[in-house]
Design a protein that fits this description.
This protein is of the alpha/beta class and 389 residues long. It contains six helices and 18 strands.
């Protein structure tokens, strides 16, 4: 166990590092001119088994609150036996609204059915029912609402933007409202109107700045654990994750870059083999892409061919996004033998190649610098698009 002591003017803090963390700290602390440096992970990760994957797609049903019924009442007092109608109006039902906020990053907190409260009924003595409170559900910035036919109805791309998904019904009028010179004691009232009932499909436009794409067991989850505090499941036996996990890479200029571990694709994913369409939909919501290749397998360039073919069949625009290739598992002997062959193929498609061992934390720093470059390029592109609009 290595100990580092950093003394401040009025305090002294002791940081404890394992040998692996020490080497990661040394590699991340290298001075690179004019390039923001990633901040090393000093704090140990939680040992809890509870892991929360990100949810970026929901199908929901929303119901506005029902308006309260009007009241039928005729005032009868000992000193005023013919007091007339005094039935109050019902209260209005609540709306179902969604509000964009930067405090949310997932849709996991949204249930499949959302219903606002109903308005209260009117009572005698001209007492109106209480209006129901509106149901406000917070969603991440960049959330889109689509109809069942696929039409985009709302795009909450700014912090604080609000979308009214279902309006509540109006409260019914009491019999006092219907009193006239001809009929001074009406015995009729209105029922409260029902609220709207609608179905929506909710999608997050962007779940991460960088997406890790690869075949199952390529080491995407291990790499995400190496560069962030995310804790996707890893194991010494073959398996693949079913939900994307997002980690955050912090830089010394106070910028945070999110990296998503996309579930593994297989051949035929664009035909929905192995839940391929759902996984490709996650990739569509990443601004930049990193292809993770298991270099220990024979002919590793075939993995890259399969990945790019599936992306092209699903959406050709995905191939034009800023990308890079990550040659993983370089700690194995077979990987070193296959690296030259992979490098020849990568040069043909004009993509940068980064040999790395995610398990041992070797080669992490150049990738994090490249990830930051991808992030800066995507920000500049978004800024130019806004200026054009």
């Amino acid at each position: 166990m290595n100990f580092f002591k950093r003394c401040l003017p009025f305090s002294c803090t002791v940081f404890k590092f394992t040998e692996k963390q020490y080497h990661a700290f040394r590699s991340m602390s290298m001075v690179v001119a004019d390039v923001p440096k990633p901040i090393p992970i000093r704090k140990n990760k939680s040992q809890s088994n509870k892991v929360k994957p990100i949810v970026d797609f929901r199908s929901i049903k929303v119901l506005g609150g029902k308006g309260g019924d009007g009241c039928i009442s005729l005032r009868r007092l000992c000193k005023n036996p013919l007091g007339g109608p005094d039935g109050g109006d019902g209260g209005n039902g609540g709306h179902v609204t969604f509000k964009a906020t930067s405090n949310k990053t997932s849709l996991e907190h949204i249930s499949s059915v959302l219903k606002a409260e109903d308005g209260e009924k009117g009572i005698n003595r001209d007492c109106h029912g209480k209006n129901a409170e509106h149901l406000v559900v917070e969603v991440p910035v960049g959330t889109m609402f689509k109809s069942t036919g696929g039409e985009i109805l709302a795009d909450l791309n700014e912090d604080g933007a609000i979308f009214i998904a279902a309006r509540g019904g109006a409260g019914g009028k009491g019999n006092h409202y219907f009193a006239t010179d001809v009929n001074q004691a009406p015995e009729i009232a209105e029922y409260g109107a029902p609220g709207e009932e609608l179905n929506y499909t909710i999608e997050i436009r962007t779940i991460a700045h960088v997406g890790l794409i690869g075949l199952p067991n390529a080491g995407k989850s291990t790499f995400l654990r190496a560069i962030s505090r995310a804790r996707p499941k890893v194991a010494p036996y073959p398996f693949t994750t079913l939900q994307p996990h997002v980690g955050v890479v912090k830089y010394d200029d106070l910028q945070h870059v999110t990296v998503a571990d996309i579930p593994g694709l297989i051949a035929g994913a664009h035909r929905n083999r192995g839940l391929g369409i759902a996984f490709l939909r996650h990739i569509e919501r990443c601004l930049c892409l990193l292809y993770v290749v298991d270099t220990s397998l024979p002919q590793p360039w075939q993995q890259l061919e399969v990945l790019r073919y599936e992306l092209g069949q699903y959406d050709k625009n995905l191939l034009e996004r800023p990308s890079g290739v990550l040659a993983n598992k370089m700690d194995l002997v077979q990987s070193k033998e296959n690296l030259s062959e992979l490098e020849l193929y990568v040069n043909k498609i004009n993509l940068p190649l980064f040999p790395v061992s995610a398990q041992d934390g070797v080669g992490i720093l150049p990738i994090l610098h490249y990830v930051r470059k991808l992030y800066d390029v995507s920000r500049m592109k978004d800024g130019s698009d806004e200026n054009v609009e």
